[in-house]
User: Fold non-specific serine/threonine protein kinase from Olpidium bornovanus.
Amino acid sequence: MAPEVLHNKGYDYLVDYWSLGAILFEFLSGSPPFTAPTMEEVWVNVYHWQKVLERPVYTEEVDKEFNLTDDAWDLITR
Assistant:
Protein backbone atom coordinates (compact mmCIF):
# COMPACT_ATOMS: atom_id res chain seq x y z
CA MET A 1 0.00 0.00 0.00
CA ALA A 2 1.41 3.36 -1.01
CA PRO A 3 2.24 5.98 1.64
CA GLU A 4 -0.35 8.34 0.14
CA VAL A 5 -3.03 5.83 1.03
CA LEU A 6 -1.68 5.50 4.59
CA HIS A 7 -1.58 9.29 4.93
CA ASN A 8 -5.32 9.36 4.18
CA LYS A 9 -4.64 11.91 1.47
CA GLY A 10 -6.14 11.89 -1.96
CA TYR A 11 -4.30 9.73 -4.42
CA ASP A 12 -4.35 8.84 -8.08
CA TYR A 13 -2.77 6.42 -10.53
CA LEU A 14 0.71 7.22 -9.15
CA VAL A 15 0.10 4.77 -6.30
CA ASP A 16 0.28 2.07 -8.97
CA TYR A 17 3.87 3.11 -9.64
CA TRP A 18 4.56 2.69 -5.92
CA SER A 19 3.21 -0.86 -6.13
CA LEU A 20 5.29 -1.53 -9.22
CA GLY A 21 8.42 -0.35 -7.40
CA ALA A 22 7.66 -2.61 -4.43
CA ILE A 23 7.10 -5.60 -6.71
CA LEU A 24 10.26 -4.80 -8.68
CA PHE A 25 12.26 -4.55 -5.43
CA GLU A 26 11.08 -7.97 -4.29
CA PHE A 27 11.58 -9.50 -7.74
CA LEU A 28 15.15 -8.25 -8.06
CA SER A 29 16.32 -8.60 -4.46
CA GLY A 30 14.43 -11.71 -3.41
CA SER A 31 12.91 -10.09 -0.33
CA PRO A 32 10.09 -7.63 0.33
CA PRO A 33 11.04 -3.95 0.65
CA PHE A 34 9.51 -3.57 4.11
CA THR A 35 9.64 -6.20 6.82
CA ALA A 36 9.01 -6.11 10.53
CA PRO A 37 7.88 -8.44 13.32
CA THR A 38 4.31 -7.07 13.23
CA MET A 39 2.03 -5.64 10.56
CA GLU A 40 1.76 -2.40 12.50
CA GLU A 41 5.53 -1.99 12.25
CA VAL A 42 5.42 -2.76 8.53
CA TRP A 43 2.89 0.07 8.05
CA VAL A 44 5.15 2.42 10.03
CA ASN A 45 8.06 1.43 7.77
CA VAL A 46 5.99 2.11 4.65
CA TYR A 47 4.84 5.44 6.08
CA HIS A 48 8.47 6.48 6.67
CA TRP A 49 9.84 4.68 3.62
CA GLN A 50 12.48 7.30 2.74
CA LYS A 51 14.21 6.71 6.09
CA VAL A 52 13.69 2.93 6.15
CA LEU A 53 14.20 1.54 2.65
CA GLU A 54 17.72 0.25 2.15
CA ARG A 55 19.46 -1.00 -0.92
CA PRO A 56 20.36 -4.64 -0.29
CA VAL A 57 24.07 -5.41 -0.54
CA TYR A 58 25.33 -8.94 -0.93
CA THR A 59 28.98 -9.47 -0.01
CA GLU A 60 29.35 -13.22 -0.44
CA GLU A 61 30.99 -13.96 -3.78
CA VAL A 62 28.25 -16.41 -4.84
CA ASP A 63 25.55 -13.78 -4.13
CA LYS A 64 27.16 -10.66 -5.62
CA GLU A 65 25.29 -11.13 -8.88
CA PHE A 66 22.09 -10.29 -6.97
CA ASN A 67 23.24 -6.77 -6.02
CA LEU A 68 20.96 -4.16 -7.58
CA THR A 69 22.49 -2.04 -10.30
CA ASP A 70 22.43 1.74 -9.98
CA ASP A 71 19.79 1.87 -12.72
CA ALA A 72 17.57 -0.67 -10.96
CA TRP A 73 17.86 1.17 -7.62
CA ASP A 74 17.06 4.48 -9.33
CA LEU A 75 13.97 2.98 -10.95
CA ILE A 76 12.76 1.48 -7.66
CA THR A 77 13.20 4.67 -5.65
CA ARG A 78 11.67 7.16 -8.10
Observations:
- Residues 3-77 form a domain with the Transferase(Phosphotransferase); domain 1 fold (CATH 1.10.510.10).
- Helices lie at 3-6, 14-29, 39-47, 49-52, 70-77.
